[in-house]
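Re: the 249-residue chain
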Amino acid sequence: MIRLVLLVLVIALPARAEEIVLGLSRNQVAITATFDGSDVLIFGAVKRDMPAPDTGDLGVIVSLAGPQTPLVVRRKERRLGIWINTDAFEFEYAPSFYAIATSGPIEEILTSETDQENRITVPQMIGYLEADAGESAAFTDALIRIRAEEELYQVLEGAVDVEEDTLFRTSITLPANLTEGDYAARIFLTRDGEIVDEYITAIPVQKVGLERWLYNLAHENALVYGLMSLSIAIAAGWGASAAFGLLRR
C-alpha cells in the first residue's frame, strides 16, 4: 500500500520541462608555490522531454562563490593630515570570492524578487543584521568596489554563450589571491525572470605540495615552523655576508 501511494505521488509531481546537464573543465583547483590564477570552464546543456516553450526567452546564470566569513569594513577619514579609522560596519558573512556570469543583462533575465529569494547577485550574497540595514548601503558598495578591484568580485554580463537555446558555456578566471576551501558553483535556467531549474556543485580549492606542508606546519606546530624560519633567515644572512666578503677581496 505504501509503495502504491509513493508511486502515485511521484506520478503526480510535475515533470520539469527543462533540466541542466553540467560539465566542468576541472573538478578541483590546486594552489602551488607558483600559482598565479586559473580559469574554470563551465559548460552544459539543457535537457528537454518536450519542445522548448514558445514564450519567454531562455536565460542562463552561472555563479561561483568562495567560502563565506564574517567581515568588518572600516571607513577612513583624513584628519589633521593623518588618515585614521572612524566608522566601522560588521557583515555577518561575505564570500571571499564571487563571480556571476550571465547570458544577457541581469535585469532582463532575473527579477529582483527571484534574486532576493535565491541570493544570486553580488549584493544579495553579502549579509548583515536587519538592525543595521539603514547604514549598510555605503559599506556594501565600498566592500564590492574594493574586492572588484582585486578581481575577487566579478560581474560578467553576457559572458555565457548559449547556442540554439540548448548548449551553454562560460569561463571564470580565478585570481592568485584565493582563499582555500570549497567553491560553490550554481547554474540557473530562467524564463521571464523566473528560475525553471537549478544545478549546484562544489569545486575544492586546496594548497598542495610544499604550500600545503608549510601551511599545516605553521598551524599545527608553530614552534617548529618559527625555528625553521629563523634558521633559514640566519643561513640566508650568513650566506649573503660571505658572498659580500668574497667580492671585497
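Residues 1-14 have pLDDT under 50 and may be disordered.
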